[in-house]
Task: structure prediction
Amino acid sequence: MSAGISGGAAQATGVATFSTGALTNSGAANGTATYTVTATNAAACNTVTFTVVVTIQPTLTASLANPATICSGASVAAVAPTANIAGTTYTWTLPTMSAGISGGAAQATGVATFSTGALTNSGATSGAGYLYGNGDECSNM
Result:
């Protein structure tokens, strides 16, 4: 197995189906596990050996610190979230906003940086929260 790959299972006795067992990848790039499989006929007089290479994608972790407080009518632009996998892109929904807050923008296609769009506060309260995701998980800012 390549670096960062753990788990998996060997099968010492003959079975009709192949299974890897649970495999995990703690790294930041795809990894592989190579199995050597031996097929034996029912009479146990013929065998064939071959390999099966399984590619295991890493589990993505991503985060974004809450941006600084901004003035009414301004936006938070081009904040780069952190992720363990290079090339990660992000999408987000329209923000959930407190009374008196308007504006904001959703992002339907994946981009590398987060931005809010212009947010306006016409009231006495503050606050807008975005829900952003990377395709596998979502986090609430």
Observations:
- The first strand starts at residue 5 and ends at 7.
- Confidence is low (pLDDT under 50) at residues 135-141.
- The two ends are 37 Å apart (CA to CA).
